[in-house]
Here is the input.
Amino acid sequence: MEIHDVETEADRRNAFPVLRELRSHLDFERFEALYAEMADEGYRLFAGYDGDEVVAVAGVKLATNFYLGRHAYVYDLVTTANRRSEGHGEALLSFVHEWAKERDCEAVELESGLWRDDAHRFYTDRMGYETYCYSFKHDLD
Here is the structure.
């Protein structure tokens, strides 16, 4: 698998169907609008290709806070359903780890929905992540 930075609209169109498997509420127009704002805030989208096919994507942003110091936050990580368990997610997340190290990060952090048991096993058992907190939200609408 080759990993590329998603930079152009054509790149985003190629990556979007895979991302949408994780973010099914998005259509391409909403994705583009949010992506523009997120990119201005430092969000980077990476795509893993097998030949010409996007098989996995990761969306990452650098951040700094008191409890992790400088770190990379993974907002999105998904491998297309028919290509899971082939090592693409592991390769892409390992790429993110190296990318973060090159930018002097102390950690990589992510959240995962409570219902995503398979993803949790992947993060803890395969990738060595620890479960260290709960994440809470309050809808303002």
In short: The longest strand covers residues 53-65.
